[in-house]
Structure formats: C-alpha cells, structure tokens
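Anyone else keep sequences and structure tokens together like this?

Example one:
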Amino acid sequence: MLLVFFYGLVSHSTRRGSGAVTTRFYSENLYRTNVRTDFISSAHIASVGLGNCITIFLTDESCPDATLSAFLENTELTKVQIIHARTQGSQPCSTHGRLSTKIQRIGAGCESSKCQLHALGTYLESSIEEHDGLFFCVGCSEQEVHITKAYYDLRVIDMRLLDFEQLVWVRSLRKLEMVAWRHIRHGIVIVTTCRMDTLRALLLDIQSAYFFGDSIDLHFALEAGASRECIEELDAFEWSHGTKYLNRRIVPSGGPQVAIPEAFVLGGSTQFQIILEDDVRVSDQFYSWLKFVTLQMLDCQMCERENIFSVSLYTPRVVETGLGARSRLNFERTSVNVGDVFLYEVPCSWGATFMESYWLTALEYFQQRAAGVNVFPAIPKTRVNGWTGSWKKWLIELGYYRKWSTIYVRFANETSFSTNMLGKGKHILYVDEEMRYNYSVPLVKGTDWYASLRYKRLFETRIRRINLRGIADEI
C-alpha cells in the first residue's frame, strides 16, 4: 500500500561546485509500511571488493602518525601502503620511528608541483595492479585528485589532512566496513524557526566538523513566516560538502509535531538523516561518531534483532518518560558504565541520525496520529501518554509497540556529541539553572572519545537496554 502525505514547501537548492541555483516545489512525501533493517546489502558491498591493499597518499607536509598507526595496526586489512610525496629540500616523515620503514617516498628530487604530479602519475602507472583497494588522497590538490581518480575512479577518498588526523578509530573497523565507506551516506536536516543566535552557533559548529570527504546534502526546513534576514543568511551560508537546500513552509506547521516529520528527506542515495533543531549545538566530532557507529551497523545481527533505528548524539541526564515526575537517570543502578554504549526505548530529539527505512514506517504512523487515530493502546506506566503536540511522543509509541531501539553512549559527566541550548519554543517557556544542568551537557572535544570506549566493537558484546522508566536489563 502506498500512501501520500501532502504539504506545501518551497525548495531552493545550491549544488556544490556548480554555482547553479534551482527552485522547485515539493508537495508530497512518499512512504511505505515495511521496515527494511538491512539498510545496505552486505552482499552488495562484498561484491564490490576491497582488494588486497589500502593506499594512503600523503602530500608534502603530511605526517599524521596516530592515524597511520591506526591503519597499520588494523589486523583486518591485508596490506596498507603509505606513499609520501616530497619536494626537494622537504623533510621526510622521520618522526614515525618504526613507521618510517612502511613509507614509500616519491618525488624527492622535485622542485615544482608539476614534477611531483609527474612522479605521482609514474608511480600509479607502475603499481596499479598491486594497489587494487581504496585510495586515501590526504590533503591533495585538485590536480592530484584528478590524476588518482584516473587510476582508482570511485575508490578515491579525498579528504583534508585535518580530517584524516581524526581517524584514530579506523583501527577498529572490519574489512567489509572499510569497503562500505562510500556506500553508507548521511544527510543533514536543520529544522528552524529562525532563532538566530542559536542557529548561527549551530552553523558554526557544523562548519567546524570533520566529514572525511563524504558527500553530505544539507537541508534547511524553515517554518512559515521565516524572516528575510534568516532566509538570506541561510542562502549565503557556504556548504562545500554537498548540495544545500532551503525549504520554507507556506502554511504554518503548528509546531514540531508536524514540522519534524515533514522535514525528513526521503529518497536519493542516503540511508540516514541527521535531524538537528536550531537550538542544539554539536561537537566537531559529531559526524565522526555517527560514521563510526553506522559503519559497524552494517551486517550487524544485534542491530537487526534489536531494531536499532537511530543513533543519538546526546546523552540524557533525566528520565522524562517514567510514571511520576522527572528524575535523574541513575547510570550506576542501570550498570551502564562510563565508556559503554546502551540501548534506550526513548529516541533522541536533541541530535540524532535516523534510518530512512524505519522513518518511512514512522511517517504513516505520524499521519494516522495527526488525524486523531489511536493506533495502539496507551503505554503502561509512563507519563508520555499525557504529552501533547509532540512528534517524539508518537515515535515513542510506535517504537514501544514495534520494539525499536536507539543507541546511546555514556561518557563522564554525560559529555556528548550534541547538547540542548534550551531555546524558547513551544515546549520551553522559561529556563532556570536547574534546567540548564539537567539538559545542557558538555560537548566532546578531540578524539579522546574513542579511547574512552570500553569496547571498540560496539555490537559484539552484551549491552544494557534502558526502558521508558529508566530501568535496565541485559540483552
């Protein structure tokens, strides 16, 4: 059965690199009821083939020791070949110690970039049969990317040196997950009522994040009545990682209960959509976490068995869905230790990525609930039943009866990849210090989050599941 959900949005898009601007009108969302948990076929990924080698090409100034060690120490990878291009007079990566023996240097006698390009082309021509896997082009010029793609085509992963330096977590990936690097894709949706102070802060956050050369489309979902200032500022916002879209409602949504479900972008080549409201902040590591988790979700039996449909960026301090008043989430009582991931029956509305195949099912349910249809009985022993105007309530209902789960992580002091700035809106009328402590958490800084994880393979050990009342059991 195919159902159509009609609404009115005006869309404006700017495509990366082309400078072209197009305008189109959206009038429908299409969705289906079945949930496809294998969001990307592992058989298809395996058929692509990694080959026998991963090649890392470093430009003149690049010597990211920690990341190179992470690749070399990954026992899943058959061979890692490191190529360092040097011009005349530049220093080799001698700081690597034992790693220096793993690095092949080219272009040592070159005095110009043209000579260096020739040395790269000569090397690629002579070794193309040996290096038949992924090719990481780190800090490469446009010409260097062009010449490597002539040999490696879609296997080239082009990223800045700053991004590559964050990949200390690559040592925990399986071979199949490395193959899937380009195949698992996320989009970003920012839902905004043009709260400009917090919106500007969020835009700075995502500009500072690391995206590892991935193509990521950015969608802004604006409420009806968005100011000209807001529209012009978002139109001028530079986004170099994919296509940017501005979608402005022509009829007020009435609040996030409708605005959030309608903002989700369907179709295309993405399997996940990251939903951010304009009163959240994100760590520059937020996409690192999502990439790390969703790669491991590939061919994951636990993920399918437990219906893991979203990954949270935020770690809660408060149980809002118990029977009585709000209470602190007691991690000690749940036996969720610092550095553990855990499942939670409550999806996150303050920064999370959602799997499209599940959201298609959720859209049908949202439409039924918006029409006043009570699909399921009231959930036992929870105050959620009394919530009004909440898309999260509807998602909790559906997830409870379909047994869906969200994956969270606990770090010290609930340090998270996103936090809530408690901007005034439909559900927040005033803010005091207690609220700030309960809901605004510190943001992750740097790559130490990876070292803080107790188990680097997230789904290969027994983990705890926390229910709506904040009580945990082991799965």
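And example two:
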Amino acid sequence: MRKRTSRATKRRKTLRVALPKARIGRRLPPGIVRLDYPRARGYVVRLSYRRTASGWRPRFHAYFGDSRYGGKAKAFAAAQAWLKAVTRTGRAPARGAA
C-alpha cells in the first residue's frame, strides 16, 4: 500500500545538508564566522560536522579572505554563495566555482 503525500510535500525542495539553527541577535547566517585578526581578515564557513579519531571536524569548510575577494562585502557574498551551493548539492564546489 502506497503512502499518500500531498502535492506540497512533493514539490518542496529538500536540502542535502542541514543548516544549523540561527541564534537570536546574530547578524551572520548560521555556519559563517567573521575573522578579524591582523594576519587573517575574512569569513570562515563550516558546515556538517563528523566524528574522527582525533575529535569532531567539519565535513565542509572554506576560508574567504578580504584581500583575495576584493573587500569585506565581496568576501561575504562569496561565502554565502559557497554555503548555498553546499547546502543545495551536498558537496563542496570546485575552487573558484562558487
């Protein structure tokens, strides 16, 4: 016997990788962190943690530096695009593709 589903559940897009929940009062999307150190200025994206022999490690991670992407706003836009691509496809895009 087949289970009946509504049309809305069939059409709903499902994410391959679940995003963490947003915290109240947070300006950045879940998974994105800003680094502001003298030698490292940019955004780090970490998503979907996994257990290894030495502890917990992010399955997907990337760094988007301000100097490489031409400023704070462009680095943030690149980080958002990369995060969107990973959550949609379930795998990290090739370098420079996002």
